[in-house]
Amino acid sequence: MRYPVMLILFLYTSLVQAETVSLNFSKAPVVSFLEATYRHMLHRDYILDPRLVDDGRKVTINIK
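Given the sequence above, the corresponding structure tokens read:
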């Protein structure tokens, strides 16, 4: 019985401390989008294929 109670408390405190995230990219270069999401928000390193750096594709995403 003790394990389920501790699990519920852990999940509750995780939800209470979670921050609200809102993303709004409009025609942003793919490289800028990846840097904002991976490096700044997720604090993760990543490696880009050199072909992607010169790619002209744009990203549009709106998440609230």
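The CA atoms of residues 5 and 11 lie 10 Å apart. Try to locate this feature in the token string yourself.
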